Amino acid sequence: MHKFVIERELPGAGNLSAEELQAITRTSNDTVKGLGVPYHWIESFVVDDKIYCVHVAEDAETIREHARRAGFPANSVKEVKAVLDPTTIG
Length: 90
Known about the structure:
- The chain contains 2 helices and 4 strands.
- It has helices spanning 18-35, 60-70; strands at 2-9, 39-46, 50-57, 76-79.
- The protein has a 4-stranded antiparallel sheet with strand order 2-3-1-4.
C-alpha cells in the first residue's frame, strides 16, 4: 500500500457548508466501500478553492478510479515519498 496526496480543484471549497461537506464525506465513504480493494481515506484539508486529500491505496490508478466513481476531481495524484515532522531530526 502507498500513501498519496490528491489535489482536487473545487472553486469555493472553503465556503462549503457543514451539510455539503458531510455529503462529500458520505459519497467518498460509499465509493471506498464499493471499490472492492484495499483503500483508506486518511484525511482531507479544505482550503479556499481546493481540497487536499491523503489516501492509501495500491496505486495511483485506484485513487483515480475512486475519484471517477465518486464524481470528484483529481487534478493531481502524487505518491508520498517521505514524511517529515518535528521528530525527523533524530
